[in-house]
Amino acid sequence: MQIHIEDIHPLTDFQRNAKAHLTRVNKTGRPEVLTVNGKAEAVLMGKRAYETMVGAMEELATLKSIQRGLEEIKLGKTRSAAKVHAKLRQL
Question: N or C terminus of the chain with fewer C-beta within 10 Å?
Fold first, then answer.
């Protein structure tokens, strides 16, 4: 993701004008970088952008889990359902 120069603001400006910053990030969909003493300290993003990011992270976690399972199958680190069910019946 590319940050635009107009999306970089001092934290003190955010503290004074929070409502305007929230309106802007929700309208543009672009995050803002908040700075302290000229250094990036925080990122402010709108609700939709955050939900999109979280959804993408969840999808990535699911894909990684599937990939890990397929690797375990290739390595023979699995048990058949019949063996698992038999083991559970013994408990």
Answer: C
Closest residue by Cα to residue 78 from 70, 87, 88, 86 = 70
Question: Residue 36 contacts by C-beta under 8 Å, 6 or more apart in sequence?
Answer: 10, 11
Q: Which two tokens stand for residue 23?
A: 């309106």
Q: If you compute the radius of gyration of the chain from its CA atoms, what whole number of angstroms results?
A: 23
Sign of CA dihedral 82, 84, 88, 90: positive
pLDDT in tens, the chain (91 residues): 678 899 999 999 999 999 999 999 999 999 999 999 999 999 999 999 999 999 999 999 999 999 999 999 999 998 889 989 998 999 8
The answer to whether 33 touches 6, Cβ cutoff 8 Å, is no
